[in-house]
Amino acid sequence: MKPKVTMIAWNQNDNYVVTAVNNHLLKVWNSCTGQLLHDLVGHADEVFVLETHPFDSRIMLSAGHDGNVFIWDITKGTKTKHYFNMIEGQGHGAVFDCKFSPDGQHFACTDSHGHLLIFGFGCSRPYEKIPDQMFFHTDYRPLIRDSNNYVLDEQTQQAPHLMPPPFLVDVDGNPHPTKYQRLVPGRENCADEHLIPQLGYVATSDGEVVEQVIGQQTIDQDEQGMEPSILDGMIRQLQLEQDQRTGADQESASNAPQNGEGTPRRG
Questions:
Q1: Which candidate in 77, 101, 105, 252 could, as Cys together with 38 as Cys, close a disulfide (CB 3.0–4.6 Å)?
Q2: Residue 80 pairs with which residues in a beta bridge?
Q3: Does domain 5-122 have CATH number 2.130.10.10?
Q4: What is the pTM of this model?
Q5: Which stretches are WD repeats (predicted)?
């Protein structure tokens, strides 16, 4: 196999260059002379992550599709720490990216299974306040394009950037309690009744009907005419203007149920 370089990184003081080769080796070079100093052995698959420590010139982090994360002392050519990303019942998860914190005391990784891995010193208690599974209820929802070729959310017929802040849900689409909904930017100061999403039944692509978050407010708010946010009010106003424009051309069908064929214009 012809060796190919997949990644390259300079250390913190630029004295060394580390290259990842497709034969799963990491090579440490003297940046001034080009001399090969060390071969770092440990990875079993290709490496696409090389991160230098923010202030310690000896430390380099590597991670790859084999699920291994190594911290190396590149001056000695030795392993300092090793972590294997084993996922119960699913084998290992390939590590796609890693970054050090500015103080160099922590680093975070993301893997092929959608996990965020946080490493560092001390206890993990500060991170226990959030649930294990966090998605926005608008994640993976289909988009469509209107007659002007603008992108719209298929379900609400609104431009995505005009939609209210989303709700936090688990992997099955079930909303989290209100204390977690306040973690979403734009919902920090909302009252409890504004943090309860409206649930409904939605048909999936394979025809299965599941209960999911479908609205941005509660039924009580609909009855009381309350607006949970300024964005909601803007969206309602845009929809009202659109209804007024289309209503003039469709007076004969004003009493018929609306099928959502009208496409709101961009504000």
A1: 77
A2: none
A3: yes
A4: 0.55
A5: 1-39, 40-82
